[in-house]
Amino acid sequence: MADEEDHGIVEEWRGAVCNGAETAADLRRPLVEGSGFREQHRDEGTGILGVPGASSSRSMTKKARLASLDVFRGLSIAIMILVDQAGGKWPSINHSPWNGVTLADFVMPFFLFIVGVALALTYQRIGDKKMATQKAVGRVLNLCILGIILQGGYFHGLSDLTYGVDVQRIRWCGILQRIAFAFLLVALCEIWALRGPCHNIPEGTLEICKVYYVHWVVAAAIVVTYLALLYGVNVPDWEFLPPSLPSNSTLIQASSALTVKCGVRGDVGPACNVVGYLDRNLLGINHLYQHPVYQRTPDCSMKSPDYGPLPPGAPNWCRAPFDPEGILSSLSAVISCFIGLHFGHVLVHHKDHYSRVRHWFWPSLGLITVGLTLHLFGMRFNKPLYSFSYVCFMGGAAGLVLTGFYLLVDVHGCKLPTVLLEWMGTNALLMFTLVASDVFPAVLQGFYWGSPDNNLVAITGKVFEDLLPSPKQAELASVLSEIFTWSLVAGILHRMGLHWKL
């Protein structure tokens, strides 16, 4: 079922993984950053949201590239923009207030899965492991710095033209920091872990797992550690100052602090879970996200599932910070990256389309089944805690999406319906920074006529409100038009060979 070009490339990949020769960027670039199995020049380096690659001084060669991964990445960015900007008017697509999943809850696992697939292609041949490690660490640091700038509190949102952050309240965690953490752990495992014999791997589903047995041992250790901490650590009572009160004020008395009664272990509710307990003690409560999703639960909002006024008698924890990208939940999130890594290994070792699809499809169904079973038996899907049931279900969902795009785009060559997503996926980091993080709209609305409310961003929104009968429809149309416009911008940049990479 595979064409001759595909056969040749996969044979090179398989030889690369087995031989362990020096780094070959010409072998990793094609499957990650491109647009279909067509001839493209390799350039040096790739971005982590795009692809975690490394540079090479070798002369440029031509290799085929996998479009479906770009399409998948573009879809994830598009969903992120949609739910972040339209979620206020459409709470049903916004993050689940606690247990359960919505459209927004697919984004983070999808990104981590994509990074895992890319890593399998990036580190096929490693000559100097120390150099590869240094480059990986450098990319992680760059990504963390960018993440802190974008989500650490420096930008105050579209409704506020000011900027700046008190370092005593800066948020250390965030989306890019979680991706960087997962990338680092999985990359180190891929660079340094021992591998079993990989010549002539049989067709069995578990055969690749035997080759990369160390990876699975590490992944299993992470799962055991996460579950042991989540259900085994006692969470004591804790106190906090409401965000409206400055923690360094001399006027605040001890009576101003609010108390949350816990003294339990194994609790997975918003108030007394280990994820929040570790973050409060290791990061400091002032450095956590100040508007957690559980503030949209019925206990905390009169407009649930949207944000709203506190109901009478609301528990104290409703006013407490909580970071959805905290330390322990990010450890669990690494497993999403390991799942993607396995799918990348399948792509490397299996040389025909049917074999790849078969080794993707059935494990995906298995993961979804395990996730649903765990959810039904009490381990609920929970994105803030990054529960193991959530990891399994989302890993399977990501696998099915990649399989579908691979069949549609790379096997059958049906690229036109997905070309906008593909373009957006080729510049994912730029789209995340400018659009999903609201940097470009924030800059644009800084130019106004007479009043700050009279800016181009607000005018655009009013145009859709005048054209459509309801604010919800206007918001949705505005966001979809924004996604379409930026996909065209990404396409122009892609055609010009301009890609922002870290």
Structure description:
By secondary structure, the protein is mainly alpha-helical. The chain has helices at about 5-20, 25-30, 30-35, 65-85, 105-120, 130-150, 175-190, 205-210, 215-230, 275-285, 325-350, 355-375, 390-410, 420-425, 430-435, 440-445, 455-465, 470-495; strands at about 40, 60-65, 235, 240, 260, 265. It has a domain at about 5-80 and about 120-230 and about 330-440 and about 470-495. The chain has a two-stranded antiparallel sheet with strand order 1-2. A two-stranded antiparallel ribbon has the order 3-6. Helix 4 (about 65-85) runs antiparallel to helix 18. The model is unreliable at about 1-45, about 50-65 and about 245-255 (pLDDT under 50).
Outline of the structure:
This protein has 18 helices and six strands.
Secondary structure elements and pairings:
Layout: H1 4-19, H2 25-28, H3 30-33, E1 40-41, E2 62-63, H4 67-86, H5 107-122, H6 129-151, H7 175-192, H8 207-211, H9 213-232, E3 234-235, E4 238-240, E5 258-260, E6 264-265, H10 274-284, H11 327-349, H12 353-376, H13 388-411, H14 419-426, H15 428-436, H16 439-444, H17 456-467, H18 471-495
Antiparallel strand pairs: 1-2, 3-6, 4-5
Helix pairs in contact: 4-5, 4-13, 4-14, 4-15, 4-18, 5-7, 5-11, 5-13, 6-7, 7-11, 9-11, 11-13, 12-13, 14-18, 17-18
